[in-house]
Design brief:
The protein has 301 residues and is an alpha+beta fold. Helices cover 45% and strands 8% of the residues.
Length: 301
């Protein structure tokens, strides 16, 4: 169906609507960013990559709103940066991902303290998380020895000031949400919270294994399309009988005494741990009787 001239005519007021591009300007306090958990380390890395002139010109461009359509994903930051002459180039910064083995070490270290899991659930920056990772030689912000490459939408090396402007805008994002660095290094906050919860569950139940589960390719997790297996979808597989759920450990009596270990009073005539175990049992039995007989509890008071 062809369009008539009336269909192509502008609005009745004689003007055409222009497509607006959302612009975000850099308006953060640099001194605050330099002391922020991830933004400060990121600015140090930028100053290592670019000279003072490129950083200053990039900051000016970011403050004037020349950085548009900022996109952040795993391993890459991308945006359009406009120059004073009006030409716009799409530039990108590529950050290396943290290996799966390194993430396993980070999760295992974080699982020792409950504060890490609680902060991630509220999307708050856990205290000393960057220091914890550094103890294992895993800096969250790529170190000077790790490559941080810059590219743009034409051939050749991109102009440093454009890349610096992109870096300034990412620093502002990090100042508002430091956990974004974890996501760009390869681990979403939701996935990290799930892994941390599983690790803490294994530690609590005593079901931790010597070697962690190997990473499974996403194509295997997706499974076979339903159209290809509709005739056997509801049939049990051959390995169903071999599947076993990990047994939950039974209650361990006197667990606290067992953790204390043997008594240091070797000259005693009666084992101290045995005496304490008898006292614990007596107190526990009496407490249960008081709970079952409230009148007795009132009589003792």
């Amino acid at each position: 169906m062809s369009r008539t001239p009336a269909d192509k005519a502008p609005a009745s007021n004689g003007t055409r609507k222009k497509k607006r591009v959302s612009v975000t300007k850099f308006d953060s306090d640099i001194a605050i960013l330099e002391n922020a958990p991830m933004a400060g380390a990121w600015l140090e890395r930028l100053r290592f990559m670019f000279n003072v002139e490129s950083m200053s010109r990039g900051l000016e461009a970011a403050q004037l709103g020349k950085v548009r359509k900022l996109a952040i994903e795993q391993g890459c930051i991308t945006a359009q940066v406009k120059s004073e002459m009006g030409d716009t180039r799409r530039v990108s910064l590529h950050l290396p991902l943290i290996s799966e083995v390194a993430w396993e070490r980070i999760v295992e270290a974080m699982s020792v303290e409950a504060i890490y899991a609680a902060c991630l659930l509220d999307r708050q920056w856990p205290p000393d998380l960057d220091s914890l990772c550094l103890r294992f030689g895993i800096p969250l912000v790529p170190g000077e020895s790790e490559p941080v490459d810059a590219t743009w939408d034409i051939t050749g090396q991109p102009e440093n000031w454009r890349v610096a402007a992109l870096g300034w805008m990412f620093a502002q994002r990090l100042g508002a949400d430091p956990l974004m660095m974890l996501e760009i290094r390869g681990q979403s906050i939701e996935a990290l919270s799930d892994r941390l919860r599983q690790q803490r569950t294994l530690m609590t139940r005593g079901g931790a294994t010597t070697h962690p589960n190997p990473p499974i390719d996403s194509t295997l997790l997706a499974g076979v399309p339903l159209a290809d297996c509709v005739d056997r979808f509801w049939k049990l597989g051959t390995g169903f009988d071999e599947a076993r759920r990990p047994a939950v450990l039974d209650h361990v009596p006197h667990a606290l005494l067992r953790r204390l270990g043997a008594s240091t009073m070797e000259d005693g005539k009666f084992p101290l741990s045995g005496l304490l175990a008898t006292i614990y049992d007596t107190v526990a039995d009496d407490a249960r009787q008081l709970q079952d007989d409230p009148d007795r509890a009132r009589g003792l008071s």
